[in-house]
Amino acid sequence: MKFSRRGFVAGLAAAATLSAGVYTHRKWKESEAAELSSDEPDTPVPVLPDALLANRLVGVWDMRFIAGRQDFPEIPVGELQLLLDIGPGGRALRGYLGAPPYAGDILQVFGRLSGDKAPFLNLRMLDNQGRSLECRAIFDEIWGAWSTGGGKATLSGRLHRSGVQAGLSTQEASFVAVRRPFTASRERLSYAPELKAWLVSPGHRLFHQVWHACRDRWHQLESTQRQGLRALGWQAGPLGKERDARGKHRHRNGSGEDFLFMHRDMLIRARAMQDLRSWISLPPPRPYIGHGIQAFVDYMANLDGFSVPPAWEVEGDESFNRWLYYIKSSEGYYGAFQAWEAQYRDPEYLSTLCLGELGSRIELGIHDWLHMRWASIPRDPNSGLPMPFGRGSADFAEHWYRPGNDYLGDPFSSHVDPVFWSFHGWIDDRIEDWFLAHEQTHPGQVVRKTIDGVPWFAPGPWVRVAEPWLGPARAGCGAWGRSNRGDGGELDMETMKLALRIVFADEEEAERLEDRVPRRPWYGRHLTRGDQHD
């Protein structure tokens, strides 16, 4: 590529002056509203306030009695846990009060979901002799709605026997129950030191983000932004033949081949350092407590590292809250993920797709949803406090580079989460299904070929791209006239930061002009923005 210093400086100047006050803010709002939706199904959630309340209550609560326990022989002995669950499509709580192994002396728990009455909660408890207790509790979260990401919460209240009016002479037992926090996948699944060092390295974090960002935003960028990226070698594809990932030609321009190839290249590199297994099939959702108590408890403890973290909420963004709840729910698994899994294993369907369309449909559909289904609420790496809006797209502060930043909702950090490799391995395995489907239907029309050490396919009737795009070539031009790749082949970090600032210049201006512009996670930004409230 020929480097034009004049063109490069012009690109930088254009990026610096791109923010044109109200005009830029209006253009940003228009582009948000006009963003093409991903290939996603509907997200039906019957009564959102009730569903969100259930999301906060489901779990294992360690229960401690403060007074009055001795007056109620119905209450099981030992250190008790209150187990609360809601079934697929359910609208009421179901659970148990007892001590491990939850057999014999145990109380069944029933409760209505009434989001309009929160934080007050009424439960009924029934022992195996038919004796009934009434429980009234107050639900409290340390950080309010943000705590639904698995933070601290309490239920405090009193219980008495059914049929007895509450009063000074009524026998009552008072209690406090504390919800157990979600155990992150990183605590169950470990990395080899060499692999972890590569994954958390600043260079790889920046590469993964800028590679996704320039492809995802290319069709929205102003011509001055595009020129700035071309000057840096970070245009979305070969120079002059850019391939955006979310524009109207996304299924036909070969961007899906870039998506599949880049992640296969990442997998090969990572698996050379550690054996990272693909999911054979997508892990099932939380087992309903009515079908087995211990299976529910084990899932909530995330014993295998693949339990789905709780959803969180963003104030004033109801459509996002509904979407995220559905993605993480059992209904979402059975209604969307299972359908996708069957579709991408179906030879009849796969044999109708070019490789680029397969990759594009996977990227904009199940791929984004897999990221968000297994994402935990983003947290500040310094304090551990929840940050529902996550990291700013062009925020390169030191603390975001720390190993603990493995948030799946942001390409800057998603590859650090161990679950990333399980579902990207599953996606990569669908390429072989696609090849076998074409061998069955169109024998000889798809030819295997190795490209830069990556097993791939030669261009033909079902493969469009001869050289999938992995970022700037070794001879590409970086910032300030430097090579975009060093002698060891590594990409220049300052060039990648500059490219990201160009891509997100309009977003930064919008945040400046508004007190707060709610940011959705990267893999959840392609929804219609919900109503905002002060």
From TrEMBL:
<dbReference type="InterPro" id="IPR006311">
    <property type="entry name" value="TAT_signal"/>
</dbReference>
<dbReference type="InterPro" id="IPR008922">
    <property type="entry name" value="Di-copper_centre_dom_sf"/>
</dbReference>
<dbReference type="InterPro" id="IPR002227">
    <property type="entry name" value="Tyrosinase_Cu-bd"/>
</dbReference>
<feature type="domain" description="Tyrosinase copper-binding">
    <location>
        <begin position="417"/>
        <end position="428"/>
    </location>
</feature>
<protein>
    <submittedName>
        <fullName>PvdJ/PvdD/PvdP-like protein</fullName>
    </submittedName>
</protein>
